[in-house]
Specification:
heterodimer; A: 759 residues; alpha+beta; five-stranded antiparallel β-sheet; four-stranded antiparallel β-sheet; B: 551 residues; MetI-like fold; six-stranded antiparallel β-sheet
Chain lengths: 759, 551
Amino acid sequence: MSETNPINKIPSVMEKSASGYYQRWRLIKDSLARYGVIAGGIGVIIAVVLIFFYLLYVVFPLFLSATAESVSQYNVPESALGKTVLLEIEEQNEVAARFTDTGQIIFFAVATGKTILNEAIKIPEGTQIVSFSQGSPINEGAVIYGLSDGRAVIVKHQYKITYPNNVRLITPSLKYPLGEQPLVIDESGAALEKIAVKIGDDASTIVAKSAGKIRLSHFEKEKSLFADEASITRTDSVLDYSAADVTDILIDKDEHNLYLLGNGGRLGVFDISDKSAPVLIQELNIVEAEHKITSVAFLNGDLSLMIGDSSGLVSQWSKVRDKLNRFAMQKIRVFKVSDKAVISINPEQRRKGFMTLDASGILGIYHSTSEREMIKERVSNSRPEAAAISPRANALLVQSDDDKINFWKVDNEHPEVSLGSLWREVWYESYPKPDYIWQSSSANSDFEPKYSLTPLVFGTLKAAFYAMLVAMPLALMGAIYTAYFMTSRMRQIVKPAIELMGALPTVVLGFLAGLWLAPFIEEYLAGLFALLMIVPLAVMLFAYAWQYLPATIQQNIPDGWEAAILIPVILLGGWFAFAVSVPLESFLFHGTLRDWFKTELGIGYDQRNALVVGIAMGFAVIPTIFSIAEDAIFSVPKHLTVGSLALGATPWQTMMEVVLLTASPGIFSAVMIGLGRAVGETMIVLMATGNTPVMDISVFQGLRTLAANIAVEMPESEVDSTHYRVLFLAALVLFMFTFVFNTLAEIIRQRLREKYSSL
Amino acid sequence: MMKSWFKSGAPWIWLNAAAVSASLIMIVGVLGLVTVRGAGHFWPSQVTRFSYQEEGKQPQIIIGEKVDTSITPAAMAKSTGFKMADDEDTLVQFLIKTGNRDVTGADFRWLQERNVKEQSDPADMMVVERREWGNFYGQLIEVKESGKTIATGEQAWPVLQTKIKDALAVFKEIAHLEKKEIGAINYGLERLRLKQKKLELENRLDDAAKRQIAAEKAGYEDQYKQYQTQLAGLYQKLRLDSLVARTESGSTVEIPLAKVVRAFQPNAMSLFDKIAHYGTKLVEFLGDDPREANTEGGIFPAIFGTVMMVMIMSVIVTPFGVIAAVYLREYAKQGFTTRLIRVAVNNLAGVPSVVYGVFGLGFFVYILGGNIDQLFFPESAPAPVYGTPGLLWASITLALLTLPVVIVSTEEGLARIPSSIREGSLALGATKLETLWLTVLPMASPAMMTGLILAVARAAGEVAPLMLVGVVKLAPTLPLDGNFPFLHLDRKFMHLGFHIYDVGFQSPNVEAARPLVYATALLLVLVIVVLNLAAIVIRNNLREKYRALEG
């Protein structure tokens, strides 16, 4: 309009007048206001775009791949003191430890390689270290040395953090948790060729191979109630297993399972819950015949074994319950890591990720649940000797056999999520088969988060479907009647009344649905189904009878008041339906309909289920659909209907053939907007369903929607964590969903408006 | 006959009419349900004394209010595990609110009608509303002062009432001292601490400043000590009196009057008494703080929080909404841009409210709030000031959410103003801004008002986004108080809608809290219905007016 504005041409006249300054000020104000208003108008678009891009901005890092950069390289500290058997980094990435095959532990600065502390473990004279193993990185870094005389030493390395002069200082130290005196594992004094240990708070288990036998020793601290001193009970046993080719021994963190790996790919699984009588529960081959096991490690949580073989494959094996409820090792997934042998696997300590190194010096970081390859990078030109990943998985050390240590920083924030883990079935640890699961958090730290949005989207669509099933017929039929058949006096009351229905707070509807409707339906389930048959029948009967009523009554009530007359009829029909509900149930189903569904059809019944949500949310959606559809029907140009009626069509024919056809785009957009509302509704589903993220189409089962999930979990999620970003992704999905529906509906309505005005 | 009837289409018209009737019944039903349950909450119900004997057990006396009756047919009762005689058709059960949670451990119990040997409503049944453990039901025996009996029998009741009145007065004084005066001291001390830290951060903490802070601190502490002695005296006075009552099982219970909110004998009340009781309960509900984990007492902080939030939201949403509408109607050339804006407005209206919550939490709270904290409140780190959900962010989030309501309504109003009025103003030499400001906008003001009212109604009922950006189940302080700067935009607040969700679904004793939730729901529905009706009336008047103008 601004071009046609005549005022723009006035200034030349105005400036000559006496109050020229004032006039100029007026014009300045005018154009300032114009820019302000334009900015305000465009601001609305900016708001929508801002919401979209902000959500995207938060979600985006989920799908970035990780990066690693080399920080420094230095010579192996104190390389004269022996070959490295283990590298470790502490939490802050400042101090690392190098364990040698001679029993030396060298603590050095991670960034420079400068030695901080050098300690040798105490071993009896005349013995040598023949075997070594790491307890568990989470268990405060316990390691065990197997000696040549059948004894073993357990050492923990610890880091103390102090802040002298407000500067962080990390002091490493050694500790002997089971005493400095070596523990006798093999009484005969044979060398402990292989050894493994698990140290718990109250119990520790050592398993060692010596003289062709596998020996298990278990130490349990028993605290008596009154004494401070704890006494230690020891249990020993020898496993009935041919140990000749055993190369690796692994004990899980509960000390209930023992895994023995043989050179040829043989895996023996023992149940060692009873430490005095271990039971072999399974024995199987886990690599193909021509390949060999080259590395093995537990994934965080000790529920899965990661097995690397000479062909460059890493396979994840986990205990899975079979149909007979027995546990058996099963291959869950395989990663193709390299063409060369996988020589080391280092699990992350707080996530289900792991780091691999192959014989040619290529490093890979993977995440098991999401099956993502985060990083693949050459870290050394020769065969690596040892590697370590820091507890926070943000740094790593690699020692190559040219006696250099490489220090790398890793940025790998969100490996848990991939498109596959969000939308497809995932085989989670200790689940019998791949499944869609949403379970975002748990109390313990080695929990495998399950971020499958599929059950939530399913729940959202299920709730919306049942709501639309309730709302669509009522709203559209109501709109047809109100716009076309109802007298204008009644319409003036009915329209605001139904729009008022839309203004009711959803929290009140949800509250009524959860605390009043749900128990009511549970009690009168049969009545609800009876209602669906009885009420339409009653209406039809009444309508049929109506035409036979005396003419005086019919004339007193003109056309267009049918809806008012029907209110008592429907009330009566409804009352009758619920009154017969209970007798009907005991007569037809011998008890309750719920029990009948359960016993005869095997359909369980939740009190707060999709039916309740459907009714409550249907109630909330009716006004949305009604109002828009009614507008569309009402504004169909009158000359169309009048023409049709003049040609002899009945009002109903005119309605169906002319009005509905013309208004159909408007009705379609009404349904779209209603669907958008049903999809995004939060409080009703939050309160009227059990919020169980199950994938069950049954109308009597609960569900969890995207929106309710956000409302429940958002306040508790840590900012910028994977969980937080996945919830933003859920919000983004909702946003896009409604964006598509609303934009479509709005475009259709704009077209329709143009069409009407041209008619 | 039937066939031609079907052919005429009449049955389908009737069926469509039935859909309208059903919708009307649903809305009236919902409003009626909320009204009956909510308004009934404050009416004192009869306290009944049941002689109850279960099969093979000793007879017992049970005192309580009958809350609910359930009738189960024999077959169904049998399947749920009740023993039914052959001649019994139905199992009738009463839900009795027995109170006395401190004695029996439960508030409610089910009684089977067949086991009730006798029931009566004796006039001397007393209900004591307490600050802890819910209601007490029983008979008054005596009133004590410092352990000595001062009234028994007939005289006990009037004495008890005056004593309760005295105790309440003392209690009020204590509450005032603790909340207002000592609250102000705590607030002052906290401000001093922040001031000191701020000076420290800016390296301006010299000896003079230190001395001044120490002096102020000492002043506060002196004041605090004074209040402390005053409080101790009041508490001593409050603890003197108690009442002794007999419970249903015959044991006696002594209840200190400090714990009593009110005592009444519903069975002895006249209709007038009951109306008066209803009035006081209603006033308590609207004007008092909640008690017992929100399940008893009033909802004043929730009302206050809702009103504050809505007011701040209105201040933000009105100018933006009106400007956008003015742009769409008065400035923009109808075409691609306006279409785009209309699509955007519709999307803003259609985006699920919880998405606004997510956006508000991430963008307003963490990004804007976090930066404000870094820039202006470095002294309170690591505790966030604006970098945490609070009143301001909740208001802004809801302003964004209700923006389309204001835009659509204002635009409709602008569209109805005849163009002759604008042209007349322009022809007289007014600039476009002057035309807008002096003629168009004043005429459209009722439309803006309508939009604002609808926005307020929408905001008052919205809960999902607020759960993320600032609402809490119990806020220790109101966002507006007597401590500088009086309006605390960073505070968390309570909200009626969230109160319904929280008390109805998260409270430990849902059954006991339910009547209160119904009452809260009634209040909320009432507010929203009134607001909407007002909007409708204004809009209709406006239409009439313009029709006259055009004519």
